[in-house]
Amino acid sequence: MADHGTLEKREAPHGLDRAVQREVTSSRAYLVGLVALAVAALCAYLLLETTLQALGQHEWLVNPEAAARAVAALPNGTNRALLGLFGAVVAMAGLALVILAARPGRRGRRELPGGRIAVVVDDEVLASALARRARAAAVVRPEQVSVVVSAGEAVVNVRPTSGIPVRAEDVLAATEDELGRLGPRPYPQLRVRVEGSGVVGA
Q: What does the UniProt keyword field contain (predicted)?
C-alpha cells in the first residue's frame, strides 16, 4: 500500500494545481459579504440615529449620547461576570469569523492521481468505491454497508447478516487497500464499525 505521506506530498505532473484547488475548495466570499452587510447596516443605523439627534427628533431605538455614556461608565452598575461572559462570546465569534474567512472552504471533492491529467472526484464517488470493497470483504448485501466520507476521515458502517460473523479487520484491510489504490488527496483516516445486531439474510 502506498505511503500516506508520499501521497500527500507528491508533485502533480499535469501542472494544473490551481485548477484542482479551485475544484476542491470553495470561496468564502459569501461570508465576507455577510459580515460587510452587517457592518454596513450598523453604520447606517448609527448615521440614522445621529441625524435624528441633529434634527432634534426623538431617537428611533437608542439615544446615541445615552448609549455612549452607558458604555463609558462600564462596568459600574453592571454584573462583571455577565459583562466578561459577553465579551468572551463576542471575542470568540470574531475569532471564528477571522478563521473562517482566512481558510478556504471545502466542496466535498478530492484529487486522484491521474498522471498527465487532473482527476477530481466527489466524496460520494470515493464512498461508493469503499462501500463496494467493504461489501465484498464482509459478504453482505449493498444495503448493509454505508460509508460516510468527511474532510478528515472515512467511516465504514457494516450490518452483518444474522449468523454470519464479520471481522472488522478484514473490512478495514480491504478498504485500506482500495484507498491506497485510489490515492485520494487529502487522504482520509479510515474507520470501520461493525454493528452488533445483524439483519435476517435473504
A: Membrane, Transmembrane, Transmembrane helix
pLDDT tens, residue by residue, 157-196: 999 988 888 899 999 999 999 998 988 888 899 999 998 8
- Strand 189-194 with 119-122, pairing: unpaired
CA distance 161 to 197: 9
Least confident of 94-108, 147-161, 186-200: 94-108
* Cell numbers 487529502: residue: 186
Closest to 12 measured CA to CA, from 169, 120, 134, 106 = 120
84 within 8 A of 72, measured Cβ to Cβ: no
Strands 109-112 and 119-122: antiparallel
Q: What is the pLDDT of residue 22?
A: 63
What does each C-alpha distance from 125 to 47, 48, 87, 115, 178 come to in angstroms?
52, 53, 45, 19, 13
